[in-house]
Amino acid sequence: MKGKVYLAGAGPGDPGLITVTAARLLEEADAVVYDGLVNPVLIEKLAAEKWNVSKHFPVRTARHGADQTRINQLLVKLARQGKNVVRLKGGDPFIFGRGGEEASFLKKHGIAFEVVPGVSAGQSVPAYAGIPVTDRRFVSSVTFVTSHEDPSKKNSLDWNAVARLGGTLVFFMGWKNLAEVSRRLIREGLSGRTPSAAIQWGTLPEQKVVEGSLKDIAAKVRRADLRPPALIVVGKTTGLRRELQWYEKKPLFGKKIVITRPEHQNAALAALLREQGANVIECPVIRILPPKNFKELDKALCQLDLYDWVLFASTNAAGFFFSRLHALGLDTRVLRGVSIAAMGPATAAFLASRGVRADFVPTRFETGAFVTALKRKKAIQGKHVLLPRTDIAPPDLKQRLEKVGAKVTTVTAYRTVQDAGVRAHLRQVVQGPLPDAVLFASASSVRYFFRALPRKFWGKMRGRLVSIGPATTAALKELGLRPKAEAKYHTAQGLVKAIQQ
User: Fold this and answer.
1) CA pair distance 365, 328, nearest whole angstrom
2) Are 326 and 402 in contact (CB under 8 A)?
3) The domain at 256-285+420-500 falls in which architecture?
4) Residue 92 designated active-site
5) How far does the chain reach from its first CA to its final CA, in angstroms?
């Protein structure tokens, strides 16, 4: 049985600009064939077989056509293996993306295909630079032009017609031939004073924009050392950038921010940072795993009527607690008569999502304040307390509870281990420009991060460390380090606010 090929656009670079349909197809795909300009964020966590054709079939000018033939053949081969294939292209597959050629090849070989349009760089990259490609006050048309034509095509571009169009001109792949493009347009009658701009890595935190006139834009691009991928915009609306630029004004635009949370907890924080314009590097240093056996936890869950309180110090503890509860065929009714405490709003919100409202959430999310507040309420003395936690949890919370008269039973609800890929992640962190900030959301992430990071880099990290709260800050101080900032509110939003400040 033959599979099917979806020719899909990934958008211009910002992972948030992929369409809903393309994102769904990626999740469902058996194989993904993608170009080098596709944002890795869209690819790296997929379960599908992955083919980076820029890596497998590198495009070289002299044999570009041969490489495209091999890509076409790969699509046919995968589909004939019965796989659903997403052919993911930067921007839109039919706007200078060679999607038409691939569709023709698939049709010729009897392979079913669908086209999923994408957000083209032609309008989105200028928009992120504050340049509308049309504006009725100035221009009523936009023309997309490629500076790299098929050499076998009989009729080349009519530069006289392009120069006389009068609207906005957007040149794809124009970096290499920019001087020649400018010369031809001026020779054909377009004013050398026409506002122009070159945009490198548009829609991404690395975005860089050079402004000028048609006459001098090539020289300015050369002096600024702009490199591909770059889009060239020529026309009156380019002059609106000074008034309309918005992306580069985001609070964290261009900042390299490293997040160290476990992979399954990174998404929300990464999204918040990207919304602020940050270049997010995900470096999960720990993994959260089930306990080696559930005997201890199961015993506690089946005897919850023996406890007066269950204290959840993290969303991980709460998550494994309820997951195992359901695995045993139990539900929240077994918590009837048991008081619930949550260390922080994120844990309280997680409990609420499971239909459980926390009876106590401290105003300060730190062990000492947590216990003191419970003591002040006279809610803990002499009470039986169940404390589900990680296998490497420090003893201080248990000790403090016992000191004020609580009878505490601890059970291992989950394990915290070093992520197997942490050293590879750290190479990405320290290569090139050092990060502007490294975010830590737990004491264990601090310990595993610096255990894996060579000591020669420790000093370089000073002034770049951001902590989610007192326990995490204490772990940094144990290593002789201090955070540049500590979140006032110990949540993902609090971390982002701490960085901004």
Assistant:
1) 31
2) no
3) 3-Layer(aba) Sandwich (3.40)
4) no
5) 58
Measured CA to CA, the distance from residue 100 to residue 93 in angstroms comes to 8
**Quick check: 25 and 116 in contact, CB under 8 A?**
yes
Per-residue model confidence (pLDDT) at position 65 = 47
Fold classification of 4-119 is Cobalt-precorrin-4 Transmethylase; domain 1 (3.40.1010)
Strands 256-259, 437-440: pairing kind: parallel
Q: Before 395, cis peptide (omega within 30)?
A: no
Phi first, then psi: give them for residue 87, nearest 5 degrees: -95, 100
Q: Tell me, what amino acid is at 257?
A: I
For residues 294-303, b (16+ Cβ closer than 10 Å) or e, as one string?
A: beebeebbee
Residue extents of the structural domains in the chain? 4-119, 123-248, 256-285+420-500, 290-417
DSSP 8-state symbol, 434: P
Closest of 222, 174, 218 to residue 192, by C-alpha: 218
**Which residue out of 35, 92, 419, 436 is catalytically annotated?**
35
Arch. (CATH architecture) of 290-417 = 3-Layer(aba) Sandwich (3.40)
Same fold, 256-285+420-500 and 290-417: yes
CA nearest neighbour of 164 among 136, 197, 131, 141 = 141
What is residue 150's predicted lDDT score, i.e. its pLDDT?
56
Per-residue burial over 186-225, b if 16 or more Cβ lie within 10 Å, else e, is beeebeeebbbbbbbbbbbbebbbbbbbbbebbebbeeee
Mean pLDDT per 10-residue run, the chain (501 residues)?
Answer: 94 96 97 94 93 69 63 96 97 94 97 97 97 94 81 69 91 89 94 96 96 96 93 96 96 95 88 94 92 94 95 94 95 93 89 93 74 79 93 90 92 93 84 91 93 91 92 93 90 89 84
Nearest partner of 55 among 33, 27, 29, 23, judged by Cα: 33
Task: Determine the Cα–Cα distance for residues 154 and 100; give it in Å rounded to an integer.
Answer: 18
Write the CB contacts of 400 (distance below 8 Å, at least 6 apart in sequence). Answer: 367, 368, 371
Instruction: Work out the widest C-alpha separation in the chain, in whole angstroms.
Output: 91
Given the residues 14, 30, 55, 135, the one annotated as active site: 55
pLDDT of amino acid 470:
86
Identify whether the C-beta of residue 422 lies closer than 8 Å to the C-beta of residue 285.
yes
Whether 154 is a known active-site residue: answer no
Question: Nearest to residue 418, comparing CAs of 292, 263, 285?
Answer: 285
Q: Is 19 exposed, middle or buried (0-12, 13-18, 19+ CB in 10 A)?
A: middle
DSSP 248-263: GGSTTTT-EEEE-S-G
> Please, are residues 96 and 8 in contact by the beta-carbon 8 Å criterion?
no
CATH topology of domain 123-248: 3.30.950
- CA 449 to chain CA centroid, Å, is 20
Tell me the three state secondary structure of residue 153: coil
Helices 315-327 and 345-353 pack at an angle, to 10 degrees, of 20
